[in-house]
Design a protein that fits this description.
Distance between the termini: 95 Å
Number of helices: 11
Helix content: 40-55%
Structural class: alpha/beta
Number of strands: 8
Largest sheet: 6 strands, mixed
Strand content: 5-15%
Strand order of the largest sheet: 1-2-6-4-5-3
Length: 277
């Protein structure tokens, strides 16, 4: 006996077998992909579960748990008709549990750009809350000499994410930009939308005015439109630069330059290319 309701012990392990129906999945950063869960279930059927899921006890409710990480593994067990799952019971608050889920999700393959932006942005946000705002370059210190803004004993979170996720610092900066402008709620709402894995579209969305942004997010998440440009066309708005093709951008620049030119300049230009003045 373990002394904890809805669990049973495992020999030679610190983990316990926890009743799956006693685990509350809660609001997950990443929704369960049925195909991925099915592949995991096939692996479990052949060789068992490699890594235990992480759960934490619900305060004041004996035998009830909240999932910290392992949503796909739980779904795989359900597909196999299993009642219990090997779990590591952790003691932590909501913030710590969210950090573990975020890090587990970010440092793996198969995430959409929206999910990566959510994970990277919240990681940097929490780093800044603990260590102060990130500043680039140098500024004079109190004694008038130049001093690096970053503390030497603290690792820049952009570098840490870049190393762990195998992405360039520029990519991490782009993800943070999207996170800062769209926010957690909008990124969560877009998780299953047509633009969830399209950085260009997410950047275009982030450039909209706040009221337009909310309306566009709602339309995309409901499947009413497939892109920001589709939404713009439907409401009579203009497309942003990110949504234009190279040809369209070139023509736009040429039209602007032509409109600013004097008649004599235009005539000379046309003669130069063999056109009619």
């Amino acid at each position: 006996m373990t002394g904890i309701p809805n669990t049973k012990p495992l020999e030679d392990e610190e983990c316990l077998m926890v009743l799956i129906t006693a685990i509350d999945l809660g609001d997950r950063m990443r929704s369960v992909d049925e195909d991925e869960a099915r592949k995991i279930s096939e692996s479990i059927a052949l060789s068992g579960l490699d890594n235990a899921v992480s759960v934490r006890e619900v305060p004041g409710e004996d035998g009830r748990f909240i999932l910290v990480s392992g949503g796909h593994r739980i779904r795989a067990h359900q597909m196999l008709g299993l009642d219990y799952i090997r779990a590591d019971i952790r003691r932590m608050d909501d913030a710590a549990a969210h950090s573990i889920e975020r890090d587990e999700n970010f440092f793996r393959s198969g995430l959409t750009v929206a999910q990566e932006a959510y994970a990277a942005g919240s990681f940097i946000e929490e780093w800044e809350a603990a260590n102060g705002p990130i500043h680039w370059g140098r500024k004079p210190n109190s004694e008038g000499s130049d001093d690096k803004m970053q503390s030497l004993h603290l690792k820049n979170p952009f570098e840490e994410l870049s190393e762990k996720a195998g992405k360039s610092k520029r990519s991490i900066q782009d993800l943070r930009h999207v996170y800062q402008h769209l926010g957690k709620d909008n990124l969560a709402a877009l998780s299953d939308s047509p633009i969830a894995d399209n950085m260009v579209q997410l950047k275009a969305l982030s450039k909209l005015e706040p009221n337009q942004r909310q309306a566009c997010v709602a339309a995309l998440s409901e499947g009413a439109h497939k892109s920001v440009s589709d939404w713009r066309a439907a409401v009579g708005g203009q497309r942003s630069k990110e949504e234009l093709s190279s040809k369209e951008l070139w023509l736009q620049k040429m039209n602007k330059q032509w409109g600013e030119g004097k008649k004599g300049w235009k005539d000379e230009f046309l003669r130069g290319i063999g056109g009619q003045a």
